C-alpha cells in the first residue's frame, strides 16, 4: 500500500468570510488564522477543508493524502510524468509534494489513523416485506427533536481533469490506489486498497483541472435529507438531490457553494475491504450520475475554474419546499 486515505483539500477563494459562513452552515467548525480558515468536522481535531482568502476566483490549491513509503512514491511519480516539488509558501514542508501530469497538486504525508466513528445509539433501520426490524417505535420524531446535521468525516473529493484515464493511471500507478469503477472515459472513481469507501478520489472530464465537490459522511439517509434541505435554505443557490447513486450506491444531496462547485452529504457508501477481491465495472453513461433522483442541474459538471467570469447565482427557495 502507498496512499492510505484522504485527509483534506485546500481551496483559494475570493472572500474568506463568505467561505467560512457556507461551510459553517454545512455543519463544519471553523478556526480562522489571518487569511486562512481551517474547517473541521466536530469530532475531529484536524481540518477537512482549508480556505485561503483573497484570491481573484475560486481555485483548487491542493489535495492532502495520508500515505506511507514516500520515497518509493517519489520515484514512481517521476516515472509516470509527474513531478516532485517544493512545498508552497506557508505550508508544511514535511512529506511529499507532487504535481501530477496535468498540474494538480497533492501533498502526501504520514498521519495517524483517525478514530473509528461511533455507532449511532439508534441505528437506521428499514422495515420491509418479510423483514420487520423496527418494532414498537416510530422511525421519525417531531422535527424539534433533531439537532442540526453535522458531518462526521470527509469521505471523498471529485476533481476535474482533461484526461480521466490518464489521471486514474497516475494515482493507481504512482500512489498505489485502485480503480473502483468508471463510466467510459468521462468519470472514474478510485479507492485505497484496503478498508476503503468505494471512492476516495474521483475524476470527471473537463478542459482543465479544478474542484467539483467534497463529500461528507453523515449518520443515515434521513440526515442526508435534513442536512441538504437546511443548507439549501441558507445558501439559496442550486442543489441536486435527494437521490441515490448507481456507482458507489450512496444516498446523496448536493448543495452548490458560493463559487459554483458543490458540497455533498452522503450515507451508505459501498465498502471495499480488500481491493484484490474487487472487480471494477465500466458503466454506461446512463448510470454515471444516479440510479434515481431529481433532474440534474444544467451546470452540475461545469468547471467554473476555466471560465473568464466568476460564478454568481442566487436561487429563490420557496418556503414550503424547505
TrEMBL record:
It comes from the Bacteria. InterPro entries: Glyas_Bleomycin-R_OHBP_Dase (IPR029068), Glyas_Fos-R_dOase_dom (IPR004360), VOC_core (IPR037523). Its EC number is 1.13.11.2. Keywords: Dioxygenase, Oxidoreductase. It holds the Pfam family Glyoxalase. SUPFAM superfamilies: Glyoxalase/Bleomycin resistance protein/Dihydroxybiphenyl dioxygenase (SSF54593). The keyword RNA-binding does not apply. Residues 153-268 form the VOC domain. PROSITE patterns: VOC (PS51819). The keyword Nucleus does not apply. GO terms for molecular function: catechol 2,3-dioxygenase activity. This is Catechol 2,3-dioxygenase.
